[in-house]
Structures are given as structure tokens and as C-alpha cells.
Here is the input.
Amino acid sequence: MNVRIEESWKEVLSDEFEKEYFKDLSGKVRQAYLAGGVFPPAALLFNAFALCPFPSVRVVILGQDPYHGTGQAHGLSFSVPDGVKTPPSLQNIYKEIKNDTGKDIPHSGNLENWARQGVLLLNSSLTVAKGRAGSHQGWGWEQFTDEVIRVISSKKENVVFLLWGRFAQDKANLIDESKHLILKAAHPSPFSAYNGFFGCRHFSKTNKYLTRHKLQPIEW
Here is the structure.
């Protein structure tokens, strides 16, 4: 099966693309895009992988599914394109970065710069129907993205996994903690950020770990 994904990811995930579940998933996704009202735009479906090739991955931030409002989703978890209002969860992420590192809060919610530095902004489901959060959960995306996490864990070393909220934390069993750093906190949503996301200092902790292992820190 010819999947249009960045070449290094195509290589490490090649077996997954031949599995029956992925063929079924591809058929569902293709039909959904033909019918319309699916985010992100088809050209940006694998944007997280395009901007962060497999050899570059140093940090993984796991989201649940794409934003379901018009113009918001562009294939990166928590991120929105330039010119789109910064969503509440990302506003809280920026607040924590400022409190943790002193960096000023950006005007844009576009996190492409993080991705290009080696931050894989991965949603568990890669597509969603307009106005219907979680609408493509159970289609097979979770099986695929779980394999992405396993491949990173098995084939790389000293990657930082930021798991925010119970959904993301349930993925910890896919990660070999003996050779990677797992940082857990509450989700940055306004409903839960005060329950442990604020004050988690994950951004400085990430950079201290990367520096300790002679890896380039992230410019948050």
C-alpha cells in the first residue's frame, strides 16, 4: 500500500501499512474526505510526520484528536495555523512555559517550529468530523498511533514523552521507561489545568534531560 507519509516514517512503519486494519482505516478515511467535512485537510493528514522525521524525534506530545472547528486543525496536536485564535488548552501550555522558563507568550498558536526541532505533535486519532469531537475514534487510528509510539520507544533512546491527562497517560505502557523519560501531568484544558498541569515544569525538565544526554534542548 502506498501511503503518502515522510520517507523515514514510511520505512519504520512499512509493516503497519500492509495490515488489514490499516487498509480498512484507509478506506473509511478516503470515503470521509470524499463526503467532506473532515479535518485536517487531506494534504495535512500526516503533517506531524512530515515536519518531524523519525531520526529527528526527541520529544513526543500526545493529543487525543484534531480540533473539529473550521480552519483549526493542521495535523499537529494542540497547534493551530497562524491567524487562528489560540485555543484554551494551548493558552495554558503557553502560560506554563512562561512560568517555567520565562519565555514570553507567543501571539500565534502555530507549533510548527517545535515540530521542526524534533517535537512529534501526535494525535491519537488523525482525523475528525467537523463539529464532532472524537467522531473517528475506534476507526483504527489508535492502533496505528500506538504503533508509532512503540516504534519510537523500541528504535530510539532518550526521547521525552509528555503525557497530559489520563488518556495520554494510559499510553505509558507502550514506552520503555528504562531508556526514555516519561513526564505525566493533568491535561492543560481549562477544566483540569489547575489539577497539576500548572507547576509541572515539564518544559524545563525536558530540556535538562536532553542536555544531560547531549541532545539539543527545545526552544519552546
